[in-house]
């Protein structure tokens, strides 16, 4: 009996994560990593709060309109955006690797389950030949090829008439 494994999660697209993060920055990062999206949205807020605590509003306005500050802000913002993009790529690859690992584990569990089931079936088959527990290495009774009951019982000591008729009905 074969089992079909149904996967309810789909792989994420690295290209889509790259496009979303490039266009929307930390908001696009939510596709790849929710935690990463939250962290990268909180960082600018924390930096602005720290900036307002360090300087007066007048100093902040003067810094904002200086060319040096504008250039530095552009570089910092570009680096911030690139970090978001890199985080998105790494996040999607990590998600896909985890999903592949879960799939391979479920397949190996399924194969182990199939092997265990086959082993139990063999053991149950051997148990039908006697009332006592049987083991895989135990010799199964001879098949019946138009032998009489008395010949079969002589050839298979320890077996019963029920075993004879069970084999006879299975061979038909």
Structural summary, described in words:
This protein has helices spanning about 15-25, 35-55, 55-65, 65-125, 150-155, 160-170. Helix 1 packs antiparallel against helix 4 (about 65-125). The protein is about 70% helix and about 0% strand. Residues about 135 have low confidence and may be disordered. It has two domains: about 15-125, no CATH class; about 140-170, no CATH class. With about 170 residues, it is mainly alpha-helical.
In short:
The protein is about 70% helix and about 0% strand. With about 170 residues, it is mainly alpha-helical.
Helix count from the secondary structure assignment: 6
**Tally of distinct domains:** 2
Tell me which oligomeric state these chains represent.
Answer: single chain
Uncertain runs are: 133-137
Globally, the shape reads rod-shaped
Radius of gyration: 36 Å
Largest sheet: none
Attribute tags:
172 residues; mainly alpha; 70% helix
Question: What secondary-structure arrangement, pairings included, does this model have?
Answer:
Blueprint: H1 14-24, H2 34-54, H3 57-65, H4 67-127, H5 149-155, H6 161-171
């Amino acid at each position: 009996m074969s089992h079909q494994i149904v996967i309810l999660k789909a792989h994420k697209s690295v290209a889509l994560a790259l496009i979303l993060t490039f266009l929307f920055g930390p908001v696009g990062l939510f596709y790849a990593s929710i935690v990463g999206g939250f962290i990268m949205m909180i960082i600018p807020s924390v930096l602005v709060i720290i900036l307002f605590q360090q300087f007066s509003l007048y100093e902040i306005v003067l810094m904002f309109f200086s060319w040096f500050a504008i250039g530095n802000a552009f570089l910092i913002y570009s680096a911030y955006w690139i970090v978001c993009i890199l985080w998105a790529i790494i996040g999607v690859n990590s998600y896909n690797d985890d999903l592949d690992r879960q799939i391979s584990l479920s397949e190996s569990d399924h194969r182990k389950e199939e092997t265990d089931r086959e082993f139990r079936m063999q053991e149950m088959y051997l148990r039908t030949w006697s009332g006592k527990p049987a083991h895989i290495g135990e010799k199964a009774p001879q098949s019946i090829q138009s032998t009489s009951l008395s010949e079969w019982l002589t050839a298979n000591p320890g077996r019963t008439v029920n075993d004879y008729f069970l084999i006879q009905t299975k061979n038909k």
